[in-house]
Amino acid sequence: MPKQKKTQSRPKPLYRVKNWSNYETALVQRGSITFWLSDDFEKTWMYVGEKQRGSQFEYSDQAILVMWTVKEVFHLTNRGVEGFVRSVFQMMKIDLPVPDHSTLSKRGKELKVKLPKKRTPRLTIVMDSTGLKIYGEGEWKVRQHGVSKRRTWRKLHVGATPEDGEIQAVLLTENSVSDGGAVETLLQQMEQEIAKFAADGAYDQRKVYDSLNAHSPEVDILIPPRKSARIWKHGNTKTQRLKRDQNLRSIRKQGRQAWKKQSGYHVRSLAETTMFRLKTIFGDELSARLIETQTTQALVRCAALNRMTQLGMPHSYKVA
Questions:
Q1: Residue 180 Cα distances to 64, 113, 144, 169, 292, angstroms
Q2: Tens digits of residue pLDDT in 136-165
Q3: Which residues 6+ apart lie within 8 Å of 241 measured at CB?
Q4: Using CA atoms, how far apart are residues 317 and 14, in angstroms rounded to an integer?
Q5: Boundaries of every domain in the chain
Q6: H/E element holding 299?
Q7: CA angle 110, 154, 107 (to 5 degrees)
Q8: Any idea which of 39-43, 57-61, 111-115, 204-208 has the lowest mean pLDDT?
């Protein structure tokens, strides 16, 4: 048999950060405890809302959110963040009580977390999902001995803007929920019109296109149909052609790689960059036991990542 020719991999392009000084300042500021404490946190620390049935809240939602944020940013346990914040208050001579670990756990189940987002009239959205481990074996044992029944994951679905990596929508589900099944819920979290939407082939489902068209009728959908895909609505029909079928016809005519380059589909890879940043900064595991608290934990991480993003991001240019 003739030897097959080895395909030569293209060398990766080199990039250089042109705003390194400002970006370095932003990186340092992320580690400042005063950055994560708002200027008026002392005024909003204690609960002043309406009375409820049973035991009353002692701390405001803002206080619980601050504790959860400090916990995730500095990789602390519930007891650890309790002691950490208490010591900070002592050094700052702030006469305020600190929620204990039990309060953090109980209030975390129903805590409302709002993503800090910049307001823009129209959005470009890249969407992807990733797994977050709950409990079970690590990666080394899985490679050596395979996956066991005790290995459990949650699935984090994220919609972000590619130009700055700001997260616009978040959903935590069980690992059985498909990528396409989370799109409608994610779109409900976005008030602005979507100009362009990019995702991988796992989102090539009718319900995804229906949800996108219902949300933003003029959206440019960049989802590569699978290699075995067929036309959903043939051209001889009098109804309007489907955007998905137009992509498929273009791929058949000029090839998949050419379509990706011509359509700008490669912007989708920046969704993976957002997932990489999340896992690098906060880890790939969830420590909470209940899915309600796990959802809060995931939302707090995404909100904190958005605040880090707004501090400053690297602006790089290609050098080779």
A1: 33, 24, 32, 14, 22
A2: 555 555 566 665 555 588 999 999 999 989
A3: 233, 235
A4: 8
A5: 14-112+291-320, 122-286
A6: helix 291-311
A7: 15
A8: 39-43
